[in-house]
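#structure-requests
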Amino acid sequence: MPATDKRPSWDAYFMEIAALVARRSTCLRRAVGAVIVKNRRILATGYNGAPSGIAHCVDRGCLRETMQIASGQRHELCRGIHAEQNAIIQAAYHGVSIQDGILYCTNLPCSICTKMIINAGIHEICYTEGYADELSMALLEEAGIRLRQVGLQEG
């Protein structure tokens, strides 16, 4: 079998990188990874966890668990920053334009991340798993952002 037959597709390649990035997560509830790509080049990555210099949930415990907040609700009541937010912030911090980029993310973004994605000019989101946030779906549809569910094993 030629070596080219073993190469993953671009979607599989970037989604597997997003899954690897998710392994850096310090969230006790859900490990999420995000990769922003433009012209098949990685521009920024992010995973969910506390801001730089702030104690992580793995060290302090989960505020959301303590307060019994359901998944998909009250996103602001958390020590962590979402993976998508961290990727967008990383790009801004380093002066990298992500306009017209594609976001590869292990989960469909929440409504807060979706609003940031829309304003950042990202035009497509590839994800592996959904997320319980109806507002997010409505905003993505209204903004015309293309959604594609991509499995980790897809080629």
